[in-house]
Amino acid sequence: MSATYKKHPESGRLCRARRSARAVSSAAASKRRARNDAPYPLLVFWLLVLGVSSLPAADTNIPDLPRATAGEHSNHVHQTYVDWTSRFARDKTNSETAWQFAKACFERADFSTNDTQRAAFAELGISASKRAIALDTNSAAAYFYLGVNLGQMARTKLFSALGLLDEMEAAWEKSIALDPKFHYAAAERSLGLLYLDAPGWPISLGSRSKARKHLQQATKLVPDYPENHLCWLEAQLKWGEAKLVKTQLSNMEAILRSARTNFTGAAWSRDWEDWEVRWKRIRAKAGSTSNARSPRDER
Q1: Which distant-in-sequence residues (6+ apart) come within 8 Å of 22 by Cβ?
Q2: What is the mean pLDDT of the chain?
Q3: CA 259, 261, 266, 272 torsion: positive or negative?
Q4: Alpha carbon distance 161, 256 (integer Å)
Q5: Helix/strand number for the chain, H first, E second
Q6: Cα torsion through 176, 177, 183, 187, rounded to 10
Q7: If I label 157, which of 5, 96, 262, 284 is the partner at 20 to 30 A Cα–Cα?
Q8: Residue 200 pairs with which residues in a beta bridge?
Q9: What integer pLDDT is reported at residue 85 of this predicted model?
């Protein structure tokens, strides 16, 4: 690995995870990458935890799922999935191997072309995550990837996923309790996005105050990671706080310039494409009149 290449936390991405989650994160997000001006139901992406009943035996039947399309970023993601499939098949007694495979399943599911493919990858990721938890109940990574893989599964179920919110909340809280900085504070960020996008009481657990708490906490835990700040700025815009966002633009510009030297290489290209689009949209919505350039111009 070269001196300028910082290994991507989710592969190649979380996604998002996400980003997501990215869950929600990241995952987010799940990423969870393309965002429209109209509120996108990130809730659906991040919904998780179908329920951990009895811990399953490791699944040895890995389906022969379609390869990624040539020329896409998914080629790298697919190869990572193939590599971890082989490692997990050889060793099902190591918690890290299990959650790394779960991570690879989540990322590969992000490039699915239909719900059947996505559900198949998600099911493998869920099983591997539960296996990792069975082997190490103190693994923040295992709980986080259980969450995002269940989020992928929820994307195939749409509205029926609403019933999973309480378990989702518990899973990310567990990951945070074990290691709040894991994956650039991914569980904090993902939980914040969940509270931001979920319906509020009495329908569900959506909460502006909780969203504010967790999204802010992510920026404090890992202040140099652009995704944390972009999610926080987007949340404030959603709440109609454009004036507050405008006061934070200069700081965000500095974070992006610095990130250009820290998050480099092909594995981060997809994230930068997403970040640049969102950053431009944030500045437009905040009414920025500065002449600040896109972070791409800082290369």
Answers
A1: 10, 14, 15, 16, 28, 29, 30, 31, 32, 46, 148, 186, 189, 190
A2: 78
A3: positive
A4: 35
A5: 12, 0
A6: -10
A7: 96
A8: 206
A9: 96
Q: Give the helix ranges, DSSP H, for 136-202.
A: 140-155, 165-178, 182-197
Partners of 295 in the beta sheet? Answer: none
Q: Which two tokens stand for residue 178?
A: 């074990």
Distance in angstroms (rounded) separating the CA atoms of residues 195 and 144: 16
Cis before 21? omega within 30: yes
Domain containing residue 268: 42-298
Whether 215 is covered by a domain: the verdict is yes
CA angle 70–68–121, rounded 5-degree value: 175
With a CB cutoff of 8 Å and minimum separation 6, the contacts of 59 are 124, 127, 128
Distance between CA atoms of 68 and 155, rounded to whole angstroms?
20
Return the structure tokens found at 229: 């700040």
CB 20 within 8 A of CB 26: yes
- Reported residue count of the chain is 299
pLDDT digits (tens, 9 = 90+) for 81-135: 999 999 999 999 999 999 999 999 999 998 999 999 999 999 999 999 999 999 9
User: Is the Cβ–Cβ distance between 87 and 102 less than 8 Å?
Assistant: no
Domain assignment of residue 15, yes or no: no
Task: Return the ∠ at Cα 15 (arms to 54 and 298), rounded to 5°.
Answer: 155
SS3 content of the chain, % helix, strand, coil (to 5): 60, 0, 40
CB 17 within 8 A of CB 23: yes
Report the CATH number that the domain containing residue 112 is assigned in CATH.
1.25.40.10
Q: Is residue 3 part of a domain?
A: no
Q: Is residue 136 part of a domain?
A: yes
Question: Could you tell me the two tokens for 236?
Answer: 């404030």
Which amino acid would we find at residue 296? Answer: R
